[in-house]
Amino acid sequence: MSEDPVVIHTDGGCRPNPGPGGWGAVLRHREHVREMFGGEAGATSNNRMELTAPIMALEALTRPVAVHLYTDSTYVRNGITKWVFGWERNGWLTAAKQPVKNEDLWRRLQIACARHRVEWFWVKGHSGIADNELADQLATRGLNEALSVGATSAP
């Protein structure tokens, strides 16, 4: 596994929440840059889009690598670095014995992380960090494209 990390910035969101959503990711390794985005025209949530972004970015990596993953979502960072272990141990129930929301995406994120050596970092959103701002723009693009496709394919 390369010690030269792939640096990933991710973001996701909805308008309104819940509602249509989009996600974006910026992947950098040396001089290579890849921008990714997508969205859902139907009802989704900010948290689902925030989770989808790192899943899609990690799944796009073609071989195991070291990753520095930056998110402005404490939900995602705390979930994957702390809470998921207890949820899994408790049969995907919260401490209050309720089903874990977005279990499907948490499981998928665990699998995506298992291929790589991922270090998670939280960054304040909309604070001028270039790749975080770009990930936000890509998420908006994903939302807008999902809505335009949904509008053109509606019966």
UniProtKB/TrEMBL annotation:
Protein name: Ribonuclease H
GO MF, one example: magnesium ion binding
Pfam families on file: RNase_H
Residues annotated for Mg(2+) 2 binding in this entry: 11, 136
Function field: Endonuclease that specifically degrades the RNA of RNA-DNA hybrids.
Tagged with keyword Nuclease: yes
Domain RNase H type-1: 2-144
Main subcellular location of this protein, as a coarse class: cytoplasm
Keywords (A to Z) from UniProt: Cytoplasm, Endonuclease, Hydrolase, Magnesium, Metal-binding, Nuclease
Domain of life of the native organism: Bacteria
Cofactor(s) required for function per UniProt: Mg(2+)
Family: Belongs to the RNase H family.
The EC number(s) this enzyme carries: 3.1.26.4
Cofactor: binding details: Binds 1 Mg(2+) ion per subunit. May bind a second metal ion at a regulatory site, or after substrate binding.
Compartment(s) where it occurs, according to its Swiss-Prot or TrEMBL record: Cytoplasm
Subunit-structure text: Monomer.
